[in-house]
Amino acid sequence: MDGNGVEVVIAHSERATLRVGDVFVKVDADQARLDVEVQAMAAAPVPTPQVRWHEPPALALAALPGVALGRLGEPSTASPAAWAAAGAAVRTLHDAPLPPWPGRSRDELASGLAEECEWLLAHDVLPADVVTRNRRLAETALRPWTPVFIHGDLQVDHVFVADDQVTGILDWSEASRGDAHFDLATLTLGHPEHLGDVIAGYGADVDRDLVRAWWSLRCLTNVRWLAEHGYGSPDDFPEVAVLRAQP
């Protein structure tokens, strides 16, 4: 990209991110999300982007060094050591003091799951047996857990690495108290072959079945949002591929 140009990184009805040189400018209709992002980055004991300025409704962040760990729906070229480093960074975050604001309750998650499953069936996005199977699996994630400081949207392309080290983690607007397995599931969604690497770096007991359950829950509850915000046909979504592949 020309250093004097403006690149639209993402844009939909809720928020937009623009890149101008080495600065990313996020514009969000919900000021609370930007406030959480700034507070979470200040509190997180892991590398985060430098805040250049914050003037509602916009937030300017410096670009991170390195490259994204991967992309959902594409093979990752990152090494197992880089994935393990990501797992170690997640563990550091989860061991940090809890943020002062709460996360979504199990009741809220269960209600959202039910609503989204009804939408998927009503719009014939997936066969009923695929929805039912994944919903049953997803519901096993909604058990009592000990809350930790979670990123809340730890997609694989939000983690940047260089020389097998994490150089920064992006997009903290969903940070809150929550289940550690949710972050681990979001990071490895669509990349099950790297779950072992992440767990090795994480260095603590991880229930792989709960990670898989969160894969189902995240995918079931994301498909409608993606479809309604211009991301194409659900048939082409990596999330739908994950749901179809779940046992």
From TrEMBL:
InterPro entries: AGP_Transferase (IPR051678), Aminoglycoside_PTrfase (IPR002575), Kinase-like_dom_sf (IPR011009). It holds the Pfam family APH. Residues 38-203 form the Aminoglycoside phosphotransferase domain. This is Phosphotransferase. It comes from Micromonospora robiginosa.
